[in-house]
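Appendix B, record 7
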Amino acid sequence: MSNEVFIRRRAMIAEKLKDDSVLFMFAGQPVQRTEDQDYHFAPNRNFYYMTGLEEATIVLMISKVGGKVTNTLFVPRPDPYQEKYFGKMKDADAYQSLAGVDEAYYLDKMDWTVERFISRNPVNDLYMDFTKRNVDYTVSIENAYCRRLVDSFPYLRVRNIRREIANMRRFKDATEIANMRKAIEITGKGIEAILKNLKEGVWEYQLQAHFEFALKYYGAMGNAFYPIIAGGKNSVFLHYEDNNQQLHNGDLLLLDLGAEYNYYAADISRTFPVGGRFSERQAYYYQAVLDAQNAVIEFLKPGVPVDETVDVVNEVLADYALRDGLIKEKSEIVKYFSHGVSHYIGLDTHDVGDRNLLQPGMVVSMEPGIYIPEEGIGIRIEDDALITETGCEVLSAGLVPKTIEEIEKFLAEA
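Structure tokens (predicted):
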């Protein structure tokens, strides 16, 4: 992406800061995997959203004093020893140009620079990008640095900027949508690779290997999330991830997976018959889920509440289940469909932001499903949709076969 995108985003977030304030955002630190190796590093998504930078340990500071906004980076100093192992490192000037910030200093100057700035300016408010799953989770960089600053400058009022950034992230620009289209396209290649190797006796992990090979071959960074490849009785578990069972004719194979491209996610679900043809009962409920998704596609448009997609799906599925005798009252459908239908998609698979009325530029999932444990029937169909001025565009339309006829024809030819 051009740095103009990140300059514009930082300007937007600076407008939300109180005057005489400072904001810190952190790329994050590598996580140790073994004695001599770290896990592959991925930057904090909000930091990446504001800078476009992917390297670890970098810190962004946005100050707003007397109405003047200054963007500053603190970056690792080039180390000739590290360069021998990992390649050439950027210097401060290169980072400054790359991100389009006003200033860039090395991290070993950060404490002195920050303390001098706060001491010499009427800074009253300290913004951080706080996130925490639970109270006993490991202390974050943001928490620790905030504590250090407040200990030194106890008059600072601490504020969280996370919600403002999250709500900005709901709206995707043209470059973000292009990245998501590419992630979806590659996901389709991966699903095709699975279908071409779907047969009696294949193992779930073998299908996962075919999928992940296709992702890397076509240029994805990898999985946007750990793939769900669930056959037979495993298809009824919403987040099954073992992927270690053998598939047999008569089973359904439920896939929930997605590629990650330039940090943007795809999130696609499909369900296929292992033997190439649906049984009569499998086909009945597959059509129920497909009709439910089509109803959601018609429903999605600006101004509708994102969470009402559940009501749309419940209505369709309940009608099918009542006709079949699976339930006696519409309210009982929650026994067989108990999850949400639509969530935002973007830099995170389950992307952030307030869940309220849909607006143009948002990208959401559509994932109705039905799960009948006593029969080993689990069906989910999920696509990704861009909200437009008049409705929605299904970004994953035509990705892989989706109707019963298309699926059975494809599998027969494969």
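Remarks on this record: The two ends are 38 Å apart (CA to CA). DSSP finds twelve helices and 19 strands in the chain.
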